[in-house]
Fold:
Amino acid sequence: MPKKYFIETFGCQMNDLDSEKIAGNLLHNGMAPADGPEQADIIVLNTCSVRDKAVQKVYTRLGELKQLASRRKDLVVAVVGCMAQLEGEKILKRAPYVNVLAGPQKGAVMSDLIEQGRREHPAIGLRSDEIPESLETQYILRQNPWRASVTISEGCNRNCSFCIVPITRGQERTRKSTDILREIKDLASKGYIEIFLLGQTVNSYMDRVEQVSFAGLLRRIAAIQGIKRIRFTSPHPNDFTDELLEAMVVCPQICNQIHLPVQSGSTRILRAMRRGYSLESYLKIISKIQSASRSIAISTDIIVGFPSETEEDFQDTLSLLDEVQYDSVFSFKYSPRPYTAAFNLLDDVSDEEKKGRLEIVQKRQKMIQIRKNSTYLGLRLEVLVEDKARSRVSLAGRTSDNKIVNFDGPEKLIGQIIQVEIAGFSPNSLKGIWIDSSV
Ligand code: SF4
Structure:
């Protein structure tokens, strides 16, 4: 009987893809997926450390697994990913039943680590000098038959003062454009129609040997037969070029949506965050995007309560929301992360104040989204049907500009691009009527 594994993923899209790489490696080495943790011989927690809350969530989950581990002496528990890299052997002190600790780049050697962890408890694969240079992964067990995530770079050279990523994922490494294009051609031949390019600062991508920039890479992917949609995350404002905007305007396969993290509307706070741009230079980029001949939806990330953020700084962030009219905003309370430059700053905005500011941002943005979504009423849009909907209507899909559309229709539509007419809206989604072209 093959050993069975169960993977629980916390965090971002890159972690989702890392879990697919881990699953591919385990499957290739003779293991099989389990239906749940109770049925598994190996439990892998693929973790996140971007905020303290994400770290505490994993410790809570480890606490829940304690009983199972004490009942099942042969159970292998692996903690992998960014939180494992950050917390290191502290995890073993709190959860001595953990057999494997591994950083985020270990998917391709996971079965070896698990075997080692089974024999000589615990196996540790954390040292940053062991990060493999190559980002190529031979085996990936993809969860979705029409949309595939593809890593084009990993790590980050920017060192924003609040961010743990350069510590957990290391310095930026990029893949060869020829390898990326070969992978995507292979995906297209297998029926994948949407490609999601991943990198910590995805648009800083440059293949120096072949002289292929990020915009050049997008154009080459758009020319691959069968690829209908291309998305990417996360671009950095300083790497947003005219060449990239031009590619987005002329290639309909590149979705007309961009996530451009700003973090704060105050230049003083941006400087303290070491973001490398001022509010004015960020707004210049927004203005270029908004004046493009193709309409492009814009979303962003906001952190409230960064050390020393005054009421005036916070008002600057609210004014930014009013000025840009983002399509969506991911907003968070500042959370100090160890080993970052901001960790040494006085965390002087009280939690109550952070909570209050977060609520104000979210309320303000909700009103903006209600107004923006109301302008979709009556439009006919292309939607890639993704799943059964959570709401009363049966299916959910996504427009090119990243709006969720819920509508009634048969399940066989999942994975297809169809037409819908927008008949309703809420702050976070649209309601549509499927236009059945066969009638
Ligand atoms: S650019 Fe992004 S990943 Fe890099 S340090 Fe800044 S926030 Fe972190």
